[in-house]
Amino acid sequence: MILFKPKKQQRQLLDAAEAYNLWDILKSKYFAAERTLLARNFAHDPDFNVILNSYLDNLNKDIKILEKELEIYCIKGPDKNRTDIRTSVTTEVINDKYIAHDIHI
User: Fold this and answer.
1) For residues 73 and 54, is the Cβ–Cβ distance under 8 A?
2) Which end of the chain is more exposed for a tag (fewer CB within 10 A), N or C?
3) What is the Cα–Cα distance from 6 to 78, expressed in whole angstroms?
4) How far is residue 36's CA from residue 103's CA, in Å, rounded to a whole number?
């Protein structure tokens, strides 16, 4: 049984379902990153901000990997969301418990 294929035997083509799955996962990662940026504006606890930033860093790493995969197969990816979100709403409207629950889901 071969666990790893040599580079020259790897597939060079994707079918439509695989292309859509890559595209959809990237779109979901963009959405999660945007929600995390928004949540970071409302977080009160400094330790929770560290967790949100760490989660955002992991999302950005995943996004870069998926973008490279789409580039390899010449697939146009979904539109990126805004890079930074600022709000003038009172930050007491949403508490950390709600943000954590939303991020967890």
Assistant:
1) no
2) N
3) 31
4) 7
